[in-house]
Structure formats: C-alpha cells, structure tokens
Specification:
single chain, Rossmann fold
Amino acid sequence: MARKSKKNRTEPQIPLQTTYKAGLYARLSVEDMRKRESDSIGTQMSLLRQFVIEQSDMELISEYEDTDRTGMNFNRPGFNRMLDDIRNGKINCIIIKDLSRFGRNHIETGNYIERVFPFIGVRFISINDNYDSTTASNNDGLIIPLKNLINEVYAKDISKKVCSQYEMKRKRGDFCGSFAPFGYIKDGNALVIDEVASEVVRRIFRLVIEGYSDLAIARILNDEEVPKHRSKRWYKSAIKRITENTAYLGRLEQGKYKTDLMNGGIRVNKSPELWVVVNGTHPPIIDHDAFEAVREIRQERKKQYNEVIAKARRKRPNSSVSPAIEPQQITEKENVEKAEPVRNVNLRKSLYEKYKAGALSKDDYIREKAKLEASEVSA
C-alpha cells in the first residue's frame, strides 16, 4: 500500500480569538433607589467593570445607565443609546448584573435575548444569572424565560404595594409630595410653617383682596426682589397657584392622579370625589374667610374675562384666529389686569378692613364688594 506524502496532509486550523467590544448596562428604578446600596448604579458598574477586567477576550468600550426608569418598558435614554451603538458597530457585547436590570417585561426581554441579539451577532451576558449567550445550553432556553416572567410578576407586585402604601399615608394625613408648598418646610411627612415665606403668602392674599391682579402682584414681588423657592422670578401663574392652594388652610388634598409605575410613571387624573382630603394636618397660614374672599374675587375676574372673550367673538364672528390667542383679546385681558390695581383700591381695602374688624358681616361684605365691582365694570 502506497504511503501518503506528508506534504498533502492538512493540519487542523486553530480559530483566531475574537475580542468583543463590551458595553456595560445598569438600571435603577424608583423603587430600587429606596433599597439598599447594593442596587445602586455605582455598585452595578463596579461589578461589571471587574468582570471585564477578568476576561481576556473583552475590551470595555462604553457604559450605559438609566436612573429612575421602570423595567416594564424599553423606552429609556441609556438603553436607546446602547442600541444606537450596536447598530453603528461600536459594541457587540452587552454585560448586565442580572436580568431584572435589563428589563422586567418578560415578552420584550425574551425577544431581545432570544431573537434580536443572536440575529445581529451580539453577545449577551448576565453575571448573577450565570448566563452567556455564546455558551448557553438548551436548559437555559427554559430557565431564562422563567426568570423573566418572575421579574415581571415581581414588578407588578411592587407596584401594587407602593400604591397601597401611599394611599395609607395620604389617609393618615402624611404629606406625600416631593416639595412643600411655598410658605412651608417639609419635616419628614409633616409640613412646618416657614416664618419668612409665610409672610409673603399672607401678603399675596392681602394684595388680591385689595384689588391687585396676579400680574401686578408678581411685578411688585420682583421689584422688591422677594425670594422664591426653586425660581428666581415671580410669575402670575405662581400667584394663581398659591391663592388656589387649600394647603394654606391646614388641609391636604392628595391622590389627585393615579401613577402607573409599571409603565414609566404615567399619570392619569382622578375625579375630585376620589381625592384623599384630610383637614387639620398642619398649621394654617390663611384663615378660611380670607381664602373664600380671594376665591370669590378670582371667580368674578374669570367671569369678567369670559365676557370680554364673548364680546370679542361677537365682533369678529368670521375670524379663523382662535379667540384665546387673538391680539385684540389679549390686549383687552391685559387692560383688565393692569387697570384692576388702580380701580377703587382704597375703597376695597377699607371695605375689607371693616369686614375683618367685625363692622361688616360676611353677607354685607360680599354684597358691598359686588356693588363696588359692578360700579367698576360700568365705569
């Protein structure tokens, strides 16, 4: 039998080692931020960086993070930036701490892991789940979807518990807002009067009763450089918000909207009868009579403004311009606001002082004020 020549013998080819361009992804939701430090973005990133250092076939290219983002959808800035880098060929390997950091929607999470990433040739690694798409077995094809489903159920359960906890706090009279109303200081779950800012609130109510418009009050406060929380200047919208806030009566109206934590914190307004209203939760800044007087003044002004709008519509019935933005109507509205402070200011002030001193009953005060306002309109 003839011997084969060694020259024709083919040696086995050793595959060239591939260096993966790694991108690290970390996510922290609202509820994760209230938990222990081990779930923080910094802790996640430290774990991921150490993992890359220990690998001989990886190069760290970029890091991506999403803070205060739910895992129930993938509309996240950091995640979208990571997808853009994958499309542009910047990275071809994604590393996460565990599957819950990637997402809690088991359908979309499974779609990315089982279809999208394998199709575009992206390696996917979940450290705590001991999952690597390049070495995944058939068993992993069963375990990973199950873990994703558990993560989604956990997210739904947390959402219900958080909503229930907030509902209980509201009914107890705890303040659940992030920032206290101007004039108060947040002390845990309670509101405490800010002595300096509360005087500004009282002054705003007095100026409204004396006949000044929201715009005029804002200008006065800006001219006097009166400080305002979270803003350098006063605007008429802030004056309106303050004079309509029942918190200054020592009353909390909360639960005005429903927040869907699983879908990124989408807010849905609730009808007033479903609000949680608790009286006497904190010291009032404004007495009830003054608050009601301001409310009646605002209603009367709104009525006058609607009359101006109706009059403008009658004058220009065929105009295609919206009455809310017509220059003529805006000018008339501004004229009402600007003229208000100079119309019988002394009479208004005198009338209110008599009412506060007890010389006029509430009914007499309202009746005399209405006469005064009627004379101003006719003028």
